[in-house]
């Protein structure tokens, strides 16, 4: 499987918005500095939410399980490699987010 085209497309559509965002943020901060305002107005309060960490942890576990199951399907069934991997990654990633939603809802009810 040649993924050069996929990587090129993702790079183009990922890097261009990133550069635009960074340039816009830099100009915005420079304007605040020139006006003598405090940059902390833009930053807001940085808080490390345990629920946010839990969400990303559960999602990454789900994606890893999806890759493993996709590999098993690719090796032992007649499915195409792309179909088995992508379907399982999306399936288990979605299931992981549903599990996170259930956990977050239980924690919210306990408060």
Automatic annotation (TrEMBL):
Domain (DUF6249): residue spans on this chain = 7-104
Alphabetically sorted, this entry's keywords are: Membrane, Transmembrane, Transmembrane helix
InterPro entries in the record: DUF6249
Matching Pfam families, A to Z?
DUF6249 (PF19762)
Record-annotated membrane-spanning stretches: 6-23, 56-73, 85-104
- Report what the protein is called: DUF6249 domain-containing protein
Gene source species:
Labilibaculum filiforme
The record lists the lineage as: Bacteria, Pseudomonadati, Bacteroidota, Bacteroidia, Marinilabiliales
């Amino acid at each position: 499987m040649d993924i050069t085209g996929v990587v090129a497309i993702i790079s183009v559509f990922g890097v261009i918005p990133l550069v635009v965002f960074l340039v816009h943020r830099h100009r915005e901060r420079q304007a605040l500095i020139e006006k003598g305002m405090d940059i902390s107005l833009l930053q807001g309060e940085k808080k490390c939410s345990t629920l946010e960490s839990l969400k990303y942890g559960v999602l990454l576990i789900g994606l890893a399980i999806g890759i493993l199951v996709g590999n098993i399907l690719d090796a032992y069934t007649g499915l195409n490699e792309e179909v088995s991997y992508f379907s399982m990654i999306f399936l288990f990633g979605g299931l992981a987010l549903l599990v996170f939603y259930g956990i977050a809802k239980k924690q919210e009810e306990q408060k």
